[in-house]
Amino acid sequence: MPSTVKDPGTGQQPWTALRQLLDLLAQGAPPEHFTRPAEEAVGAGPDAAEAIADATRVALRIRSTLSQHRRREAELAALFDTAGDLAALRDLDAVLRAITHRAKLLLGTDVTYLSLNDDEAGDTYMRVTDGCVSAAFQRVRLGMGEGLGGLVAESARPYTTGDYRDDTRFKHTGPIDSAVIEEGLHAILGVPLRLGTRVIGVLYAADRTSRTFGPDEVALLSSLADHAAIAIDSARLMDETRTALVDLNAASQTIEAHSEAVRRAEEAHDRLTDLVLRGGGITDVATAIGGILGGGTLIHDADGAELARAGAETRLPPPQAVAASRAGGRAVPVDGTWVCAVLAGHELLGSIALTGRPDLGEADRRLFERAAVVTALLLLLRRSVAETEDRIRGELLGDLLTRAADPGTLSARARRLKVDLGHPHTVFVLHAPAVPRPRLLAVAARTAQARHGLAGTHREEVVLVCPSDTPSACAARLADELGAAVAAPVTVAAAGPVAGPEGFSDAHAEALRCLSALRALGHEGSGAALADLGFVGVLLGDRADLRGYVRQTLGPLLDYDARRGTDLLHTLRVYFAAGMNQTKAREALHVHINTVVQRLDRIGQLLGRDWQRPEKALELQMALRIAQVSCTPDESAFESALGDVR
Description:
Blueprint: H1 14-27, H2 36-40, H3 46-88, H4 92-107, E1 111-118, E2 123-130, H5 135-138, E3 141-143, H6 147-155, E4 159-161, H7 174-183, E5 187-195, E6 198-207, H8 215-277, H9 282-293, E7 296-301, E8 306-310, H10 319-328, E9 332-334, E10 337-344, E11 347-355, H11 362-402, H12 407-416, E12 425-431, H13 437-450, E13 454-458, E14 461-467, H14 471-486, E15 491-498, H15 504-520, E16 527-529, H16 535-540, H17 546-564, H18 568-577, H19 582-589, H20 593-607, H21 614-629, H22 635-645
Helix pairs in contact: 1-3, 3-4, 3-8, 4-8, 8-9, 8-11, 9-11, 17-21, 18-19, 19-20
């Protein structure tokens, strides 16, 4: 612009207008102020006016450039502030609220909001809003490719519209359009939230009036979205880290508690195992279990018989609970009592019950179950010892009954088992067809151990030898006891007593004959010796005790005659010889019929009212005949024989 140009009229010089434009630039004046120098130069010449107009245009361009720089600086400062604010936040909700609020301030829009992608549902959902008033808009979900936000989430590219309602570029849906209308939005800008190549959501800015978002605004919101995506991911990682720390702490506490439970269980297991290995009994184990778990303990065998009890009242184990524990392999609670089956593999050895601990925790429950394992070990050891001892006792019994060794050796072997063969012993043969032989033998073995005797099988029958000098009474008691133990009739035949190893074989043979007689006479389920079977016993016995038989049958008459000086025994013999006819007996005795009646009545009082029944009458006649044939024919000798019998 030539400096020599002068205003021919009253207009100002061009340099003056240039100075004014420079001052306006320096002052940052609004664009409309830059037209004043040209207006004041209306009277200037054409050249001056053109120069001033050209200078004005240049000044406006400079002003626009400066404004852009200042705005960019402000935006950059705001972005840095935003990045700093987001970096300081640790809560994801706080991060999202800060993002939307800062976007609203930077772009100066009516509404800002943010949606996050739901990978499982395959859509993007509204997460947080700033400036929204519609509840429906705050709950809207956009499928991939639906609406502006769905298109941004799917394509990972920013989209803008001056008026969404009339923009046909987007896939409109009823829920989305309804929410947009209810919120009153027109102009919308959406940019993706990206982590690398993955889109995690969309950041939006919107106005309730139609407008155009410029490239600078798109770039600004995109920059904010980049910062926001990083902040969101950091916050999410922090949440995951905190959750992981909480889980880790919980896991650490669980591991610590588990370690303590394992340590306690190991100590209890070592204590119980050491107790068993040191020879502790089942009662010692029950006491130790109760002390460890703080309750009462009961131990039963597989048949429900109590083996030990410590700190608890006697009670039977619930069969259903034992069955449930056996099936599940765990202890089960029943009415405040914990019950655990004692198993060796699939075999039920018994059960253990814990009382007084209804609130048994998982750790103590496992400890209780471990105690059941130790109890199984003890029961197996006991059974192994018992089986070995039973086998040894059975072998000794077999040798006694077959005379397989010399008497001195047999006596020495018996003494090692705490059996004194020098004392009187009785041989019992047991028979129970309804009971398996191993079961009957097991019960007999327990009885033998309790009575310091022997038990085993010989000639297909269970044999029991016990110290006793009363075979008949002992056989009757054993029949009752063994029958109750196996819940079935048990026939017990006795023979003896014998002292010394030499007599056991003969006694066993006699007991077998007694058993055959008991079964033949229909006396199964009872216990007796041959002497209890009357003349049948006399006939079957190889060493018949005739004096004993006469005494057992006619003893009351013999005693009465001896005390009173009467002769009821002779009256009875004559009565039977007369065919039990009172008239013929009177004639043979040469007494009055009333005397016969009185004597017979007295005989009935002494021998029992059933003495004339065929079976009893036969026994009496046999005894009379044995007494008769065992003496000389003359009367004095007969009386002498009777005296011997007495």
